[in-house]
Amino acid sequence: MHSLVQMRKPYALLLLLLMAVLVCSSSAYTYYKVNEVGKSRTDGFFCGDRIITIYEALCLKRRVRRSPILSGADAKTFIQKRSATYGQYHIVEECCSESCAYEEVREYC
C-alpha cells in the first residue's frame, strides 16, 4: 500500500503543476474592460462589411480637410491623444466581439 501512494505522488504533483500553469496562463491573457457604459442600450454587433458601412456613415461627414503640417500645440495634442488610447480596445473588439452603440463607433472617428 505504501508503494502505491509513493507511485501516485509524482502524478499528483504533476497534475497540480499543470493546473497551476493553466490557471496562470488563462489569467495572463484575460483582458477586462473597465470603461464600459454599463447597462446602456447597444445597437448590435457590427462585423465585416457592416462595420465599415456604419463607420463611413457616421464618420465621413465629420471629416474636415486640414493642412498636413500641424502647429506645435496641435501636434502635442495629437500625440497625447494617441498615447492615451494606446492599448485600449479597437473597433472590431468593441463592436464585433461585443455589441456596441453608435456612440461607441463615433469614438473612433
UniProtKB/TrEMBL annotation:
Segment forming the signal sequence: 1-28
Gene3D superfamilies per UniProt: Insulin-like (1.10.100.10)
Keyword terms, alphabetized: Signal
Entry superkingdom: Eukaryota
Keyword hit for Signal: yes
Record keyword Signal present: yes
Entry protein name: Con-Ins T1-like isoform X1
Classification of source organism: Eukaryota, Metazoa, Cnidaria, Anthozoa, Hexacorallia
